[in-house]
Design brief:
With about 190 residues, the protein is mainly alpha-helical. The chain has two domains: about 1-95, Rna Polymerase Sigma Factor, Chain: A; about 100-190, Orthogonal Bundle (Arc Repressor Mutant, subunit A), CATH 1.10.10.10. It contains nine helices and no strands. The protein has helices spanning about 5-15, 20-40, 45-60, 70-90, 115-135, 135-150, 155-160, 165-180, 185-190. The longest helix has 23 residues, at about 20-40. The radius of gyration is 19 Å and the shape is elongated. The relative contact order is 0.10.
Length: about 190
């Protein structure tokens, strides 16, 4: 077990005995990671904050039942994913805004990519984000867990309570759907 994992176990045991400062320390330790994952799922700062807040309330309420069969981050990903899916069920009419405006000026060094390469890269990123965000929620979660959060198949399986083979096949299916969506922008992805 890693040093971070050992620290989590210690904090969880203290929190289970009623030490509120230990739970607060768990939140502080994992809140940034939780927010980044939630933001990748929602692509909306306010919704991501809501998902994280709801998730940590659920973690607090369920921590007494945490047995340590998986790591705390894996358990947290499961709860975050469930909170995200619950949010989507509550309000199916909301449109998910996939893109953010970045109006900050950028200075490129002379040795860096030229403006044309930057535009292509930016357009490629926009098309990829749009495609990922148009996936059904469970497929989006799989893609983000694997490709953005760098979780292993085993970690994803534990987080979603699925067999590893199911995770692999669903992730492959999501990748195939993404590929089909991005085929109309083939020129962006072959350079």
């Amino acid at each position: 077990m890693t040093e971070s994992g050992q620290e989590d176990v210690m904090l969880i045991e203290r929190a289970q005995r009623g030490d509120r400062s230990a739970f607060d320390a768990l939140v502080v330790k994992h809140q940034e990671r939780a927010y980044h994952y939630a933001y990748r799922l929602t692509r909306n700062q306010e919704e991501a904050s809501d998902v994280v807040s709801d998730a940590f309330v659920r973690v607090f309420n369920a921590l007494k039942n945490f047995k340590g069969n998986s790591s705390f981050p894996t358990w947290m990903y499961r709860i975050l994913t469930n909170c995200f899916l619950d949010l989507r069920k509550k309000d199916k009419s909301k449109l998910n805004v996939a893109l953010e405006a970045d109006d900050s000026p950028r200075e490129l060094p002379d040795t860096g990519p030229g403006p044309e390469e930057e535009v292509t890269k930016s357009e490629r990123q926009l098309q990829m984000e749009s495609a990922v965000n148009s996936l059904p929620e469970y497929q989006r979660a799989l893609i983000i867990m694997y490709h953005a959060e760098n979780l292993s198949y085993d970690e994803i399986a534990a987080a979603l309570d699925l067999p590893v083979g199911t995770v692999k096949s669903r992730l492959n299916r999501a990748r195939l759907i993404l590929r089909d969506m991005l085929m109309k922008h083939l020129e962006l992805f072959h350079s």
